Amino acid sequence: MEIIAHRGNHDLYLAPENTLEAIKHAWDLNVDGVEIDIRLTGDMQIVVFHDAQTGGLTDGNLTVCNSRLNELKELSITGRDRSFPPLKYRIPALEEVIVTIPPDKSMFIEIKHNCDPEGKIINVLHDLLNQYKISKEQIVFIGYVNNSIEFFKMKRIKERFKDHKVFPIFNFDNLNSAEEIIKKAVLMKADGINIGNSRLEAFKDFEKRYRPINNFMKKFYRQNLCVNIWALDDPVMAGIFADAGVSSITTNMPGLISQSLPMV
Q1: Which of 145, 20, 115 has its CA nearest to residue 73?
Q2: Residue 196, exposed/middle/buried by CB under 10 A (0-12, 13-18, 19+)?
Q3: What is the largest distance, in Å, between two alpha-carbon atoms of the chain?
Q4: CA–CA distance from 137 to each of 91, 107, 226 (Å)?
Q5: Average pLDDT for 162-172
Q6: What is the C-alpha to C-alpha distance for residues 97 and 195, in angstroms, rounded to an integer?
């Protein structure tokens, strides 16, 4: 089972999420992979940034999809609680992050859908990745499929990147059944799924509702779908999902989760 650092290793205030520094900290920790979020800018560049607006994380309030790369680069990432100093951390372009990937590691790239219903980011992403000598097995594309626009966008990504893995994202809060997830995944010819939540209570509720978890997960394995659990920071719950045979866990605390799972 693999450990994926959620938005890099920003645990213990090492660096703000989705920054080059947080990503490099994750590689130094020897995780199996790093998860990042990407958005298309107004001048058709791709940046690594989670929010649609920059105000929650930086010292300026811009809309990413309406801003130019050089404008975004002028902002300082100070963090959601403003705990990081100004002028130190910047929004990275995707190519700055791609070149940091070690040969034996992977990157989960979450494609944000806001402001890009037509999927313009797909062609830009395709051209960018073709410039770098990186194995197709090292890149996993992920993204929500909560509505038809998101679903068909992720389906187009799988069609354009046939040799890359694509995992649609599902949230415990919107989960009705494994069969519903499998149907969507099969229709888009996905290679696996992301399932999880940012709240620990949601994991506990899920575990109680679908106990034993391994029986629930077997439904995906029978369809040759890998399962990645996202935003799980609790060692006890991580052990339960590891025992259920999930392929990877994405966590904000990669050091803690790695230490708690000796089989990793």
Answers
A1: 20
A2: buried
A3: 51
A4: 26, 9, 14
A5: 96
A6: 25
Half-sphere exposure of residue 40, counting CA atoms within 13 Å on the CB side? 19
Cα separation, 164 vs 140, in Å, equals 6
Each residue of 198-234: pLDDT tens digit? 999 999 999 999 999 999 999 999 999 999 999 999 9
Joined tokens for residue 101: 């990937």
How far is residue 96's CA from residue 92's CA, in Å, rounded to a whole number? 6
In the chain, the amino acid numbered 169 is I
- How far is Cα 62 from Cα 185, in angstroms, rounded to an integer? 34
- 115-147 pLDDT, tens per residue? 888 899 999 999 999 999 889 999 999 999 999
207 φ/ψ sector (left φ>0, alpha ψ -120 to 50, else beta): alpha
Classify strands 226-230 and 192-196 as parallel, antiparallel or unpaired.
parallel
Sign of CA dihedral 15, 18, 20, 22: positive
The amino acid at residue 48 is V
- Domains of the chain are 2-260 (3.20.20.190)
Burial grade of 137 (CB within 10 A; 0-12, 13-18, 19 or more): exposed
